Amino acid sequence: MSPICPCPVEIITSHINADFDAFASMVAAHKLYPQAALVFPGSQEKNLRDFIEVFQPAAITRIRDIKPVEVRSLVIVDTRQPGRIGALADILGNSGLKVHIYDHHPVEPGDIRGETEILEEVGATTTIFVELLKARRDLSLSPLEATLFALGIYEETGSLLFPSTTERDLAAAAYLLRKGANLNIVSNYLKTDLNIEELELLNELVKSSKDTVVGGIRVAVTGASRDSYIGDAAPLAHKIMEMEDVDAVILLLDMGGKILIIFRSRVPELNVSELAREFGGGGHAAAASATVREASLAIVADTVRDLLPRHVKPEKTASDIMTTPVITIQAHNTIKEAAGMLTRYGVNVLPVLKDGAYAGLVSREVVEKAIFHGFRKNSCIDFATPDALTVETKTPAREIETTMIEHNQRFMPVMQNGVLVGAITRTDLLRVLYEDYLRKRHLDHTDTTERTTPGRNLASWLRDRFPKDVYDLLKTAGKTAEEMGYTAYLVGGSVRDLLLREETLDIDIVIEGDGIHFARALGDAFQGTLRTHEKFGTATIIIGQRKIDVATARTEYYESPAALPTVETSSIKKDLYRRDFTINTLALRLNQKDFGQLIDFFGGQRDLREKTIRVLHNLSFVEDPTRAFRAIRFSERFGFKLSKHTENLIKSALQMHLFEKLSGFRLYEELILAFSETNPAKTLRRLSEFNLLKIIHPALSFSEHLAEVFSSASETKAWYNLLYLEEKADITLLYLLTLLSDLSPEQRQEALKRLSPPPRIKDLILKSTALAGEILKRLPARDPAELYHLLADLPLETILFTISATNDSEKKKDISTFLVTLKKVRPALKGRDLKKLGIPEGPVYSKILRQLLDERLRGKLKTELDEREFVLTQIRKKI
């Protein structure tokens, strides 16, 4: 932006205990505001003081040389909190003061407001300025400035390793390197080796550290006193967190008259920025600081401990990790019926209900033994465990963990007011523990690969990568679900493509609750159009140009191989389990409390990273053989490999002749999707390698000749698209024509019977393959009118197929001439014009108009006047 207007005094400042990001931002701001003075509001970190002393990168004005009442313009960088700019906060009351703010910290209550605010969620405020300076061609950077700015970015982002680092920070760092930034200097000033005094202080802090456990979060509170100023103490907090293996550290340093408080956290349950605000400080959720004056170390430490319960979010409870609704069995049902339910739903334990109330548990192991001993007709209540432990919805996860381990109970019923509302399995519990482990590993910055761990919140990804209207819709969906007592999830391809950084327009929402009831409420909120499907518990909302599919969380089972599934209401976990491949089982919570939280029950992220298509279970292709075609389609679409196990299961499905029972139309739909989403030649070659093309017809294989024809068809498609003609071709139909072109007429009939395409498509394919040969025999045409009438009534797909079926350039040129030029030719005169010329109505009109068209096509008639003279001549000849 341009510098502010000259005024009596202009100041650029940042926060107390300034670091490299603060100072680099000040120096960068000075290039935009060259009339302004650089003023520190207080102390600086030791490494920064050393750097300034050695390199003197900019003139610094002492705060005592400023007359606050005369300041008319204030530029604040790397903070927005009045408590962090020290005595300069008094300037904020000046009449007519212009305030410009540049910052990358989260918005907090009580923030300073400015007439210009450039607030960006990047890793360092310096990054914002580098982008602004890069856009200004009239400004240049010296190598020293580039080095200072690099220090600001590298320090604030942990050498580009902190989770807060963004692509923009990396791009800014790369730009600075091109401008001469010296990484040796950067490395020297970012070293964290401790000197003797710092080691002594660290030893004292570790000895005085006392742990406080709040809501399952372990916080180390420690302090020490020194007579003189201590430089950068932040690394000590990190050291203590690593040494003591705690979730958070609060370090208090009494430096004779003031206490510096350093807050560090590596768990989302404790946002230390909010805690620091209690002491007039601020920062990030994981790192913050504050300064307290005229207080004792002990009192401040007690205050911190007293405030912790208010700032530690409640740990996960049973309601957060349970599966709901629960598949149950009635007490009077037989053991044989219990065995059927366990197999049908793929579960190992069933809660037993008697008169609607929870009465115990029956496991697969018990059911199988009861059947072995001949008790298949007995009621399942006879073999249920009535004294199995239960928990309440508000029971903490850590307590559930202890209970299940100590009592060796693998299935925990969750109760609310005496009613069974959910269940927790050992897998659910292990997932919570694993998420905590990965989250801590991520926040410790020990994993440098891009990794979206289970439970990670991707709200910022949704905001940055989805169109604003879609993001707002998802926020509203979460709020609506929460108000209705439901849980909403974004599922399927949109989540997968979000992690793959691919654009997606498919919005699928799954509701744990009544999906149709929810869809009506969401549709009303946006005044959308609603279509419901009561049988399946699904609905479609049309909002402007957007289509949102909503479904009730469901499970499904198959009565026989390749049959359509029977669908029942279930939980999100069961809903995701019914999907085809692990990469399509990812979901994001949309409710306000956990908006954007990633759900990954089945290793979808792992397979995205490893670029692998993997089925969820061994019977996947037995239940739905079309998944074999889908596996190849996704493999080619994303450039992924099939897992070895998935390949073996496809081969087993072929040996079991499961594809013979597959509906032809479902097979047809999969082919059409493959043609629209992938390179058809590559996909068909892979299908042929697995002998899957023979499912369409035994004589069908991807021969070298077929490969050549497909190459020609792809070239034809590309050529036609470059013409930018109004009429759009159905390219999938062109590819289907090409695929069946190698078969004999009889085999083609059989293949189409197997595929069961819509009648119109079937007729077009049969006619097109025959017509293409006839057309090519009559080309090249000598007469443009003859060429026109040969092709004019044919579907566009037939014409394109004909082009791709020949290598004769003259014939291709004829067809091209028709599409580009001749097809658009029309006579200027109409029937009404002939009437005005005194020609009686009748069949003669068609003859005259046909003659006009033919002469136009031949180029003999150019204008309407030419046509009138032609008609009059024909009249005189007594047509």
Walk me through the topology.
Blueprint: E1 10-13, H1 20-32, E2 37-39, H2 46-55, E3 60-61, E4 73-77, E5 98-103, E6 116-119, H3 125-135, H4 143-156, H5 167-178, H6 183-190, H7 196-208, E7 210-214, E8 217-225, H8 234-244, E9 248-254, E10 258-265, H9 272-277, E11 282-283, E12 287-293, H10 297-311, H11 318-321, E13 329-330, H12 335-345, E14 349-354, E15 357-363, H13 364-372, E16 391-392, H14 397-406, E17 411-416, E18 419-425, H15 426-443, H16 459-465, H17 468-483, E19 487-491, H18 493-499, E20 507-512, H19 515-525, E21 529-533, E22 538-543, E23 546-552, E24 554-557, E25 566-569, H20 572-577, E26 587-589, E27 598-599, H21 604-609, E28 612-613, H22 620-623, H23 626-638, E29 641-642, H24 644-655, H25 664-677, H26 680-689, H27 704-723, H28 731-740, H29 745-755, H30 759-777, H31 784-791, H32 796-804, H33 809-820, H34 831-836, H35 844-857, H36 864-876
Parallel strand pairs: 1-2, 1-4, 2-3, 4-5, 5-6, 8-9, 13-14, 16-17, 20-23, 28-29
Antiparallel strand pairs: 7-8, 9-10, 10-12, 11-12, 14-15, 17-18, 19-20, 19-26, 21-22, 22-23, 24-25, 26-27
